[in-house]
Structures are given as C-alpha cells and as structure tokens.
TrEMBL record:
Family affiliation: Belongs to the bacterial solute-binding protein 2 family.
Main location: periplasm
InterPro entries: AraF (IPR026266), Bact_Solute-Bind_Prot2 (IPR050555), Peripla_BP/Lac1_sug-bd_dom (IPR001761), Peripla_BP_I (IPR028082)
Recorded GO CC terms: outer membrane-bounded periplasmic space
Highest taxon listed in the record's lineage: Bacteria
Name used for this protein in its record: L-arabinose-binding periplasmic protein
Any GO molecular function: carbohydrate binding
Signal sequence residues: 1-30
SUPFAM superfamilies hit by this protein: Periplasmic binding protein-like I
Annotated site location: The binding site for the sugar molecule has not yet been established, but C-87 may be involved: C98
Periplasmic binding protein/LacI sugar binding domain boundaries: 36-326
Subcellular location: Periplasm
Amino acid sequence: MKTSKRRFLKSILAVSVLAVTGLYSNVTYAKDADTIKLGFLVKQPEEPWFQTEWRFADKAAQDLGGVEIIKIAVPDGEKTLNAIDNLAANGAKGFVICTPDPKLGPAIMAKARSYGLKVVTVDDQFLNAAGEPMTNVPLIMMAATEIGERQGQELYKEMQKRNWDVKDTAVLAITADELDTARRRTEGSIDALIKSGFPVEKIYKSPTKSNDIPGALDAANSMLVQHPEVKNWLIVGMNDNTVLGGVRATEGQGFKAENVIGIGINGTDAVNELSKPNPTGFVGSLLPSPDVHGYRSTEMLYKWVKEGIEPPKFTPVGDPVLLNRENFRAELDKKGL
Ligand code: GLA
C-alpha cells in the first residue's frame, strides 16, 4: 500500500516535469512564425495511456512538419478553461482534448469559439446542458461497448479455464456511471458475462468515487466485506487502474492470485503489473490504440486548421489486443509503444 502510494506520487511528479518541459520547449520554438501551434489537453496525465497519446501527437507533428504540440494537463474545469486562454494567448489554432468532465463540453466550446479555436475530442465525449452527447464535435474514441463486451468474454473464458464453480464465484463490477465511456464499457462487460451464462444475481456493482487506483480500491473493499461467502472473484472495471484497484483490494483481504481474475482496458497502464515476477489476479489487459488516438486526432486537427478539411464527427478505433504476461512486450513492440 505504501509503495503503491509512493509510486503513484512519483508518477505524478514525473508527469508534472513532463508537462513543464513540454510547455517550456514550446516557448523555445515559438520564434518560427510559420509553425502551426496545436494544443493537446488531457485529464489524467499520470496515466501512461495519456502519455502515449501525447507521444504520438508529437510523432504526428514531426511527420507533418511545421507543427508544434502544446501539451497541457487539465485535471479540472478551471485548469481546462485557463489552458484554453493560454493556448489562445500563445497563438494556437486549435486543440485536441480529453476533458476531465464531459459536462464541461458547452463551456469549452464557448471559450474555444470565442478565440476561433478548432476542437477535436478524444476518448470521452462532451455532453450538452441536457446531458446528451454533443455529436457535432469531432470525436475519436475506442468502441466502448465492444471493448467492454470483450472484457466480459475474456473473464468468462479464464474462469472456465480455471474450472471454477460458478456457485463459489461472483463478479465485482467497479462502476463510474457518470462517465459515459466508463458506463458503456462496464455495461458491455456485464452483458457479455450474462450472455455467456453468468448468473445476474451474483454480479455486484460498486461505484468508485475517483477514476484511479485508490478510488477503485475503496469501492472494491466495501463490496468485498459484504460478501465473505464468495471464494472466487471476477473483476470488471472501465480501465486498467480500476481493475488494479479491485485486485489490490482482494489481496488486502487475503485472496490468493488463483482466486481472482481481473482483465483491464488500456494495456499501457498494465505494464508494471504484468512485469511482476509472480502472477497476480490481474491476468491481462485489452490494448486498444492510444498511438492511433494521439496520432490521428492531431493529424485531423492539423488538416482542419491548415487545409480546411473538417474531420468526421465520429472515428471509432477498434480491434483491441489481449495482453498477458507472456505476450505483452511483443505486442507493445509491434505497435511501437
Ligand atoms: C477514458 C479513460 C482512460 C482511457 C480512455 C481511452 O478516458 O479514463 O483511462 O481508457 O478512456 O479511450
């Protein structure tokens, strides 16, 4: 617990340094008047997922030439709106964003419009004041329901491989329903489990207060103590950190790795876990394409700014690969991650 906290703090520190150096280097290059400046704003820069998007945004900028990416961490609404002011003051022409809160959509768009900045959303879709998706803002994201369904199918397969008796088994689903991406993934996963034959009454949902390991750990702990009768747990969650929090909670309550199956989503955020010398209950992760998210969104925004080519309203990114302890290095290598 202590070490994971320390690791968490360390990664935040590393990211702040990253963000600062990112901004700093932008200032250094700002002299070239022909350079097109584009922002890339992410809600959780401590997640390797978002660091990977940033890395591939830079790669796109390099390939396109004459583009500079201004990377800014936007963990809350105030920082997001300030970031847009800063981008405009720096002469940026637009930005890609994974918002810290979908409900900020209208405020973000109003501010962007006031400066004439173009906006491409990535990962999480904006919601309007009525709570409906803002389908007029270009969005690039992984197919949420499908990747969730795949998580459910893989959990079920692994359970069968281990010959678990369903009677001793339950599903711990750590939910974050206010984030539509998350809701669609976990619902997809639960639906797939039910479809495979898992009894619906043994699927226990526990909402997390924050989308990180500590939040998920708390949510999981409070559910685990309510079900001392369960011998084996399947863990459902919207991404790697959520599932990792669930797995850590089972460990804390004395469950052995052979009685827990967790399969995450993101892949990038599972590398430390899958590298551990001994297997844990976290058996794998579905890796979509953060490289494609970072690269394509940047390329789309650039073409919009430079050539007036408006991006499609929706670009789904599919075909995740299941990483496990054996294949993860090779699979990440294949994608250049
Ligand atoms: C959401 C999650 C991230 C990541 C992205 C991928 O934003 O919070 O961890 O899974 O989706 O689209």
